[in-house]
């Protein structure tokens, strides 16, 4: 007889296989979940129990377009344990049963939050509050621990302020930071197989709040606290701009070893709605999906609801709304097409490589750069020509020197007085690579590059009593030839200490900080810029920040 644990694993595997299996015949008109599954990602939505019980169209779209479900409210503390020790799962079970019927996974939301938690919890003393929290987690996670549909949980939600300090919630004020680690440990004990997440808003880009989250996750994992995943809520608004460093931010969390995910995506606009705002909104949705697709550790994207008919936004932000991909009449908006096409991009089924590019012709060669052009490739496999890779021929393992979307490139960061043999391969939208072009040979001029030089300038992104974030520090190649590395130095005022950095490697000696480029942002063509950032703690009352940056 199969043990219940084995049955659970087998059932889980079945569900995972059912929604992850790529379909070879994914058509452009296929639902979002088909395309997401082909990419190995989930596409989720949050569901409300009211319309789920009463509206056929709501059920049809929810069941057919998505492969992951979050309960918008039904799993929150006020719903599952309104009075101490009285657990009710009617709404939560309604959501989980719907998901099971539709072969969807469920992400549990949320165990420990400062909102939608009954008054009886908030009034407890420290010892009683800690044990109420541990019991709540044990009961709620335990209720679904043997249910193969429920695969992950938001264990703690929204613990930081915008400036990166701890939110002054009743949790923090009563228990200090320790409630976070205790909550994760209780959740792991209740379901060793569930993926455990920390979740927040305004952490999509690199800023003080996301850096605080980054530092917390890093420190918890170093202590062995079971934090498996980080959720970026992504409640965006077109009037505030898109967090263009979202992919970079997800990537830095991924480097900590955690899974990342977009958990509550919506993109609101100010009323009235018009076609231009719809188009901008669509680009935001596309950018988010593309950021997740580009980060291997990103598991998927959940949209916070799907129809403007049932959205939290107008209740919270007067004169704003229309945040979702379906309008209030269940008609698809441009945002739907954007999500669909981003997920469908690089259409699966295209296994035909582009034609081989022509032999590169060598143009201007300097001590560290070389211009190449070649005759273009064509692609007939369906996904379309995406661009070209240029490699250095070096025998067993050739080096990728650069990428271009057109049939030309200026290679930079080359070594002086060096012979290069290079070839080009075309790539299509499905990732197929063409054959190698014939080789081109050139030798760079003697160095140094000449006309080299760079500048650096820092901007205070945010500051508070005890610290600040400098982002971006913009590094610009002001010379006439490309550079392949840079070093920025600056001085921290006395008593200031570095607490975090990104997109450069920083070393501190006394109060002098030396920032060297990361592996991926050292090459700068003339006039090109890149940036890095860092966070500093300072004595409270001190308002100083570094005043000058030098670049070499
Ligand atoms: O169910 C009652 C109903 O009986 C009553 O008549 C009505 C009157 O206002 O309220 C109903 O409850 C509302 C509940 O949603 C269900 O619709 C609450 O007032 C309302 O505050 C609650 O809002 C939810 C909000 O969290 C509460 O903070 C939103 O639906 C939900 O979308 C939103 O979700 C949060 C995530 O959990 C965490 N991240 C941010 C996100 C947006 O705020």
Automatic annotation (TrEMBL):
Top-level EC class as recorded in UniProt: hydrolase
Active site: 264
Reaction catalysis annotation: Endohydrolysis of (1->4)-beta-D-xylosidic linkages in xylans
A Pfam match: fn3
UniProt domain CBM2: residue ranges: 447-552
E.C. no: 3.2.1.8
CDD domains listed in its UniProt record: FN3 (cd00063)
InterPro entries, sorted: CBD2, CBM2/CBM3_carb-bd_dom_sf, CBM2_carb-bd_dom_sf, FN3_dom, FN3_sf, GH, GH10, GH10_AS
Domain called Fibronectin type-III: residue spans: 356-447
SUPFAM superfamilies: (Trans)glycosidases (SSF51445), Carbohydrate-binding domain (SSF49384), Fibronectin type III (SSF49265)
Record has Signal as a keyword: yes
Signal sequence, start to end: 1-28
Key words of the record: Carbohydrate metabolism, Glycosidase, Hydrolase, Polysaccharide degradation, Signal, Xylan degradation
Residue stretches making up the GH10 domain: 26-342
Domain of life: Bacteria
Family: Belongs to the glycosyl hydrolase 10 (cellulase F) family.
Protein name: Beta-xylanase
Source organism (scientific name): Nonomuraea coxensis DSM 45129
Classification lineage: Bacteria, Bacillati, Actinomycetota, Actinomycetes, Streptosporangiales
